[in-house]
Amino acid sequence: MNPCFAMATSDAPISIKSVSLLVRNQQQVASFYRDIIGLDLISNDGEVVTLGQGDKPLLHLYQDAAARSLPHDAGLFHTAFLLPQRSDLGSWLKHASQAGIKLDGASDHLVSEALYLQDPEGNGIEVYVDRDRSEWTYTEQGIVIDTTPLDIDDILSKAQSPWQGLPNDSVIGHVHLQVGDIEAADAFYRDELGLQRMAQIPQASFYSSGGYHHHLACNTWHSDNAGTRTKGSAGLSNIEFAVESLPGAKKKAIDPWGTHLSFSTG
Predict the structure, then answer these.
(1) How confident is the model at residue 8 (pLDDT cuts 50, 70, 90)?
(2) 116 is in which domain, residue-wise?
(3) Which of 49, 54, 221, 222 has the most beta carbons within 10 angstroms of its beta carbon?
(4) What total of structural domains would you count in the chain?
């Protein structure tokens, strides 16, 4: 476990500060994250559209109309937006239903309750809420994570008010990646960057610091044996971590599949 990471809003000593995506239709994708996910528009300088919660940037969108969607390449599996309360998840689910949004899945992971969908260009999104940590189970192998059906009716019953956008203290709780090899992912994210592997299931590893269930995950479910990402591909271009001190004095890193990572203090 790497002790250098700063305490995050998600109450763990590392935080995902922001995610950057390369998209073909910047305005369409930005409108989706604003109107459906509930992010606020922070800035649009003609090159990059930045959205977030209040004035806290969470998502940067860069445009390349020629970028290609390659779903079996290494890259983004989903960006996961963590809401503060279960009632917030209920309000968002009602909002999504009223907007006619099709969900890709709804899962109870024991440590969290999650809803899954895609943006207009196929970038995966998770909207979730954590269970209270007193309900998390740890073993010698790590934390117990499972995928069971989510009680949709109960989630909806907890909605207390109409959705008004991402509530205060919403963050990107984790990012889940597609990679080509799990052993290579362990060697990079656990052994080189110093994250702790919290759980492992077939073809996937979950990494964290400070006991959180995961800040980063890697899987090969659709990308087994994938090599370095194809140049000019749409999707994930960078993950920015907020840390107290730079891990190994690094400000930037690139994983074995070409995913760019950056580290900033504060």
Answers:
(1) very low
(2) 15-265
(3) 49
(4) 1
